[in-house]
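Subject: design request, 141 residues
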């Protein structure tokens, strides 16, 4: 079995969060979705489990972070710069927050950060592996 990651996130409104993530390009896996949780698939190896607050509390007694705090920043690769920009636009149109951190353009790598409806931070990024092998491009900003 290949290695996979399952990111578990507490959400205040499961249906709204599912719609938000679907608009970003995640697909729902109904096999692992019910009234308390939704499995949202980014790729064959990356899954996001959206959990109602009650469901979240069955896994941990630690407090749920507020929408204005940062518990983690998760990075997802995109096919190109335009996809990074598009996902930030979609997030802001659906009640998330675009560009919660300054945009970074290092030439070989481009990223913008967004927050979902509950303040979970996602770094949408594109990287050109060919440019990375060129030490000159790594120092350009």
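Subject: RE: design request

Done. Sequence follows.
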């Amino acid at each position: 079995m290949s290695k996979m990651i399952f990111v578990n996130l507490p959400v205040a409104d499961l249906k709204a969060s599912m719609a938000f993530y679907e608009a970003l390009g995640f697909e729902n896996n109904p096999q692992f979705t019910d009234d308390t949780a939704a499995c949202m698939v980014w790729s064959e190896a990356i899954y996001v489990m959206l959990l109602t607050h009650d469901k979240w509390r069955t896994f941990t007694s630690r407090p749920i972070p507020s929408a204005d705090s940062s518990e983690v920043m998760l990075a997802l690769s995109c096919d190109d710069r335009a996809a990074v920009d598009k996902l930030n636009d979609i997030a802001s149109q659906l009640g998330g927050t675009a560009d919660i951190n300054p945009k970074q353009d290092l030439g070989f790598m481009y990223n913008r950060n967004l927050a979902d409806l509950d303040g979970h931070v996602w770094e949408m990024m594109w990287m050109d592996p060919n440019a990375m092998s060129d030490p000159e491009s790594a120092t350009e900003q």
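The first strand starts at residue 5 and ends at 11.
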